[in-house]
Amino acid sequence: MNDLAKRSGRGVYVQGNDIDTDRIIPARFLKCVTFDELGPALFYDERFDSQDVSKGHILDAPVHQGASIMISDTNFGCGSSREHAPQALQKFGFEVIIAESFAEIFHGNCTTLGMPCLIMEKTQRKRLAALVGQHPEAEFLIDLQAQTLIFANEQFSFTMKDSAREAFLTGRFDPLDELLVAKEAIHAVATRLNYSDHSG
Amino acid sequence: MGKNLYQKVWDDHLVGPLENGQYQIFMGLHLIHEVTSPQAFGMLKDKNLKVAYPRRTFATVDHIIPTDDQSRPFSDPMAERMMAVLSDATLAHGIEFFQPNSGSQGIVHVVGPELGLTQPGITICCGDSHTSTHGAFGCIALGIGTSQVRDVLASQTLAMDPLKVRRIEVTGQLSSGVTAKDVTLHIIRLLGVNGGVGYAYEYAGAVIEAMTMEERMTVCNMSIEGGARCGYINPDETTFAYLEGRERVPTGAAFDAARMRWARYASDPDAHYDDVVVIDGSAIEPTVTWGVTPAQALGIGERIPDPAAAEGLDQELMTDALRYMQLEADAPIAGTKIDVAFIGSCTNGRLSDFQAVAAAIEGRKVASSVRAIAVPGSEKVDQAARALGLHEVFTAAGFEWRKPGCSMCLAMNPDKLVGDEVCASSSNRNFMGRQGSSTGRTILMSPIMVAAAAIQGAVADARDVFQLEQTS
Q1: What CA–CA distance (Å, rounded) separates B251 from B65?
Q2: Nearest to A159 by CA among A118, A112, A124
Q3: What ranges in chain A are assigned the alpha helix state H?
Q4: How confident is the model over B123-159, as pLDDT tens digits?
Q5: CATH classification of B300-465, choosing from 3.40.190.10, 3.30.499.10, 3.40.50.2000, 3.40.50.2300?
Q6: Distance CA B124, CA B29 (A)
Q7: Diameter over CA atoms, chain B
Q8: Among A18, A25, B289, B440, which is most buried by a count of CB atoms within 10 Å?
Q9: Interface pTM (ipTM) of the complex?
C-alpha cells in the first residue's frame, strides 16, 4: 500500500446531522489573528456550560482521549466558511473526518489542510459508529487508495471526491505551489478579461 | 446547445487544468475582512510571497466592529488587534481598505455592490460564506477558507471543481407582504440545507425577474444556507440600471461597452441545466423558522411540526431543535414571545429594507418587553437612511439606530443575546448559539416581520399588524 494512502488512529462518534461550523467553533473564538490556539475551543458550547464546566460531551470521555478519527452524520460543516473550524478539529488532534456528506466549503478547507473527508453511506456508518462506541481502544486502518477501512475486524467502504483523493495520494493537497507555477497563464487571463478598472 | 451563465464565466476565467483533476480559475475580484484574512497574510509571510494583484483585492471591517462606540482603540482588545493587523497588512501590500468613517465602510457584501465593484460576468471570492450575495449581479461569487484567501492573494486564482447548475424558477407573483426573504426561506425549506451541495443555483422566473437588485441580493445571500456553493441571477436591465452611476462603474461609452459585455453572460435560452425546480411564488407565505437550521421553517399561519411524524435522525434533529428552541410541537408559531428584534446583516441590511420597515412602523411603538436594534449594512446605507429621516422613524418607534456592521447576526462584536433570549432576526442563520449566547434562540424572518414581532412582542403576521393585504 502507498504510504500516503494510509491513515490510522482511534475514533469517536459525534452524532448529529447538519452540524454547522458555528457549533464546531463558536464565533467568539474567531477573535484571533492566528489559528494556533483554537484546539481547546473545539465544540466549546457543546462541551462546556456558561461557567466552563464540562457537560460530559463524548469528546471529553476518557476512553476517547487521543482519538484522531471523527465520525458524524450528514451535511457536516455546513454554514460559515470559517477555516477556524477545520483548524480547530486538526489542532484538537483529528486527522480524518467520516460523514455521510460534507458541506463544500468545509470539505475544501479540510482538504487543503491535509485532513481527508471520507464519505460513508448510512448503514455502514451507523455500524461503524456503534462499533467505535463498543471498542474505543481499537485502531482504524484506512486505505485512501482502495477506499476501504478496517475496524474491529470488519471492513467498511467509503468514497472520496476524486480530486481530493488524488491530492492525498500524491501528497499534493495544498494547491498553492501548483497555482503559482502558472504565472504567465494567469497574466494572460487577467489581460484577456476586459474588466472595467475597479480602482478608484 | 447553449451555455448557462456559470459555464460562460467559468470558461472565461479558466487558467488551465491541475494535476489532481481540478481547474485553476482566475478571480476577478477579491474581498477581504478582518476575521478570515489576517491569518492569510501571515501565511504569505511564512512563504515569503507577495500579493500578486493588489488592485483586485479590497478590504473592509465588519464582523468585529462595535455598532455603538466605534472610536479607537475598540473596547475589546482582540477586536482592536484584528483591526490593526488588517490595517497594517493592507497598507503594506497596497490594498485599498474601506476604513470606518471613510464613507465606504460596511458589511463586505453590502459594500461591494453599492460601490459597483460587483459586476456581471466576473468571478468574486471572499473568506465569507455569504459571498454568494454578489451572484445577484450575474457573477460567480464564492465563499472560501483562509488558505484559499492566501491562494488568491498569492496567485489571484483558486483550485476548483466544476459545479452542476440547478435552475430554480419561481413563477407567478408574490402576495402583498411577502418578500425576497420569504422566497429564499421557502426555497431552503423545500430543498433542504444540503439540497444544493455540488450545485450553483440559478434563480429565475417571473418572481425573480420582478425583484429589485436589493431583493435579488437577499435571495442569493442565502444560497449557502441551502448548501449551494453559489447562487446567481442572470443580468438584465434591472442589473444595468442599478450599476449605472455607481462609484466604481465606468461611465459614458465605457459603460455602454460594459453593458453589452455583461448582457452576453446571461444564460442562453437553450442552455443545459443539471436540474430544474419550479416553485409557485404565488403560494409563498411570510416564512419564519422554528428550529435551528434555516430549512426548519414554516409559513406564519402554520403549526410547528411534530417530530413524531418524522423518522430516524430527522426525528432526533427535530426533537433536539424543539428542545433547544423551547417550543412545543403542533403549536402555532405566531404568538411566540420575543425578547430582541434585530434588523440588519448582509441579508437584509440595505436601504430598501429600512425603507419598507419605516413606512410600516411610523407612529407605532416597539413592545416594552423588546430590545430592538436597527443596524445599517454600510456607511452609505446609514447616510442614505438618515437623509430620508428613517433613523428618526426607527428611534421614535423604540429601535436603537446603530452604526454599520455585522452586529448581532453573529455577535462577534458586543451586540449579543443574553441567556436564552429569543431574537426575531432579519439575518441568515438560526444555528444554536449563533447570536452570541450558547442558549440564545433565533427566529429568522423578513425585516417587515421582525418589525411586526417587535411591535407585538411576539411572532406575528406583518400583513395583519400593518394591514398590508391588498384591498383589490
Answers
A1: 34
A2: A118
A3: 21-24, 44-47, 84-92, 104-112, 122-134, 162-170, 176-181, 183-192
A4: 999 999 999 999 999 999 999 999 999 999 999 999 9
A5: 3.30.499.10
A6: 5
A7: 67
A8: A18
A9: 0.95
Which H helix or E strand runs over B452?
Answer: helix B447-456
Q: Are B167 and B273 in contact (CB under 8 A)?
A: yes
8 A C-beta contact, residue A196 and residue B249: yes
* CB distance B305 to B318 below 8 Å: yes
- What residues of chain A, 88 to 107, have a C-beta less than 8 Å from chain B? 101-105
Contact B133, B126 (CB under 8 A): no
Segments of chain B assigned to CATH 3.30.499.10: 5-275, 300-465
How many domains does one find in chain A? Answer: 1
- What's this model's pTM, rounded to 2 decimal places? 0.97
The chain B residue lying nearest A79, using CA atoms, is B225
Query: Which regions in chain B score pLDDT beneath 50?
Result: 471-472
Interface of A with B in 23-52 (CB under 8 A): 23, 26-28, 30-35, 45, 49-50
Task: Please answer whether residues B200 and B236 qualify as being in contact, where contact means their C-beta atoms are separated by less than 8 angstroms.
Answer: no
Residue A37 CA: distances (Å) to CA of A79, B83, B397: 22, 19, 44
**Residue A194 in domain:** no
Residue owning grid cell 413563477:
B171
CATH for A101: 3.20.19.10
Q: What CATH number has the domain spanning B5-275?
A: 3.30.499.10
Q: Choose, out of A51, A113, A196, the residue to mutate when testing the contact with B (most B CBs < 10 Å).
A: A196
Q: For residue range B247-262, what is the model confidence (pLDDT) as tens digits? A: 999 999 999 999 999 9
Nearest neighbour of B16 by CB, restricted to A31, A164, A182: A182
Cell 436564552 locates to B420
Residue A9 inside a domain? The answer is: yes
Q: Residue B80: closest CA among chain A residues belongs to which residue?
A: A31
